[in-house]
From TrEMBL:
Naturally occurring in which organism (per UniProt): Allokutzneria multivorans
Pfam families: DUF3558 (PF12079)
Keywords, ordered alphabetically: Signal
Residues spanning the signal sequence: 1-26
Protein's name according to its UniProt entry: DUF3558 domain-containing protein
């Protein structure tokens, strides 16, 4: 992969969960066989093919750890995939950010859902770590860009062959591990879906 393209799109890629992360760790699945079946449905209120959740409503700013909530409230912004961007293979997304008051110190989170045929949930690369949120298996990839900005992406199975995901770029709070924040948000999503 072209390293200039990776550098230029690093922030976008990490925020898109399923796009190529700087080290190429989160490649979308395109016809690749996945290990293991999708877990059986845990909810009866959803139908196959329907949206598993509204990414702007499944979590709120109050679900983020106190360490990163330096402002009273953050209004999520709907972030659908850009049809002109082939790496944006998710179906719907929502962005939360806390960086308006601190220029060039990004703190951005993207919550998404999409199809398991396009979003990989199995460890494949050296930086991938298998994760479980409740009974949902997935994969997590931590990253640090060339400027030292930390990021983390997690993807996990949902019902009916769908995938949820959370990504975070954290250039604002150096003592906060982005994977800890991503884990807390992913666990909250699964808890709400399974209740």
């Amino acid at each position: 992969m072209d390293t200039l393209l990776v550098r230029r799109t690093h922030l976008t890629a990490a925020l898109l969960v399923v796009a190529t992360v700087a080290a190429g760790c989160a490649q979308p699945v395109r016809g690749e066989a996945l290990a293991g079946p999708t877990p059986p449905p845990t909810t009866t209120s959803r139908l196959p093919g329907s949206a598993p959740f509204d990414p702007c409503k499944i979590i709120s700013w109050k679900d983020f750890p106190l360490d990163v909530r330096t402002v009273e409230d953050v209004t999520p912004r709907h972030r659908p995939p850009n049809p002109q961007e082939p790496n944006e293979v998710y179906s719907d997304g929502c962005a939360f950010d806390n960086n308006e008051l601190v220029p060039f110190k990004a703190f951005m989170t993207l919550v998404i859902w999409g199809s398991i045929t396009k979003i990989r949930v199995d460890p494949k690369n050296p930086g991938d770590k298998p994760v479980m949120y409740g009974n949902r298996r997935g994969v997590q990839t931590a990253d640090v860009d060339e400027k030292g900005v930390k990021g983390c992406v997690t993807r996990f199975t949902l019902d009916y062959g769908q995938v949820g995901g959370v990504s975070l770029i954290n250039g604002r709070f150096p003592d906060v591990d982005p994977c800890t924040v991503v884990d807390a948000l992913a666990a909250k999503i699964v808890e709400r879906l399974d209740s």
